[in-house]
Amino acid sequence: MLRYNLPMSRTLLIRISAGILFLLISWIGYTQNQGGQPPPLTINKVKEDLYEIEGDGGNVAVYITNEGVILIDDKYEQDFDNIVAKVKSVTSQPIKYILSTHHHADHSGGNTKFSSVAEIISTANARANIVQHKQSNAPANMVPARVVFTEETAVFLGGKEVRARYFGRGHTNGDAIVYFPALRTLHTGDLMAGKTPLIDYPGGGSVGEWTKTLDEALKLDFDTVIPGHGPVTDRAGLLAYRNNVEKLRNRAAAMIREGKSQEEVGKVMIAEFGWASSGLQMQWSLPGMMAELK
Ligand SMILES: [Zn+2]
Question: Ligand 1 centre from 5 Cα, in Å?
Fold first, then answer.
């Protein structure tokens, strides 16, 4: 907060105005969508009895057993009806459990409606982030999981098993990695999401720990990966993502050690790692990264 002791520069003023404008546009976008139709979803088969639902928010995994369905994540609140319809298109079994990967509204926003029909399970930290309204994308009406774990849990249903592990910080301080042992498949939550990492420092994230967390996940026996966002991939895809996080961290750390400013580091993240110039990475990841990698 040293910055505020200095006379307010023109660029700072412009940056603050841009920030306010961004928040305003996001808010208008959010509220305008409330009355409208939520975006359509698609459901794809991943393996026997395992599907994933894409579109609007994080990828939802759907695991069908003869005693009910286990979901991984539940997108935004507005997607509830569409998720239920997509699940109905592949099975008549009811949704019984939801394993949440983390607290962000695009993965756990559906809790608000699903909590009355299914048991929701998350890490203790993901629950705490929802309860404490960690600003980072947890709306005030979000419903936290009733059942939590700190290291590992599993759901056994209809002779099938789904495991959830907490391996450490990364995207947030509460990211679960979900493992389907019989199918050798992972759902990574946002520990793998899109092309470049979003480190949610307000939500306890860490670029330093991220690769260690993924290294633990890579010790599991799997060949298929459902990422938090983006198309289904494989072990090589996850490893490449992990290596890109390391490359990004090393690049930023070297610049920070050379005394480069936050603005200069930000420019390199945009140019070389695909960060959007006014996106969440610039708000949530960059300031925290400057402090963590000092
Ligand atoms: Zn997220």
Answer: 33
Q: Which DSSP string corresponds to 217-276?
A: HHTS--SEEE-SBS--EEHHHHHHHHHHHHHHHHHHHHHHHTT--HHHHHHHHHHHH---
Distance (angstroms) between ligand 1 centre and the Cα of 66 equals 31
Give distance in angstroms: CA of 159 to centre of ligand 1: 31
Smallest CA-to-CA distance from 253 within 238, 242, 239, 268 is with: 268
DSSP reduced 3-state for 122: strand
CA of 102 to the centre of ligand 1 (A): 7
Per-residue pLDDT of the chain (294 residues; tens, 9 = 90+): 333 333 444 444 445 444 444 444 444 344 445 557 899 999 999 999 999 999 999 999 999 999 999 999 999 999 999 999 999 999 999 999 999 999 999 999 999 999 999 999 999 999 999 998 755 566 778 899 999 999 999 999 999 999 999 999 999 999 999 999 999 999 999 999 999 999 999 999 999 999 999 999 999 999 999 999 999 999 999 999 999 999 999 999 999 999 999 999 999 999 999 999 999 999 999 999 999 999
Which residues hold their Cβ within 5 A of ligand 1, which is an ion?
Answer: 104, 190
Distance separating alpha carbons of residues 1 and 171, to the nearest angstrom: 24
Q: CB neighbours (10 Å) of residue 216?
A: 13
Q: 195 CA distance to ligand 1 centroid (A)?
A: 13
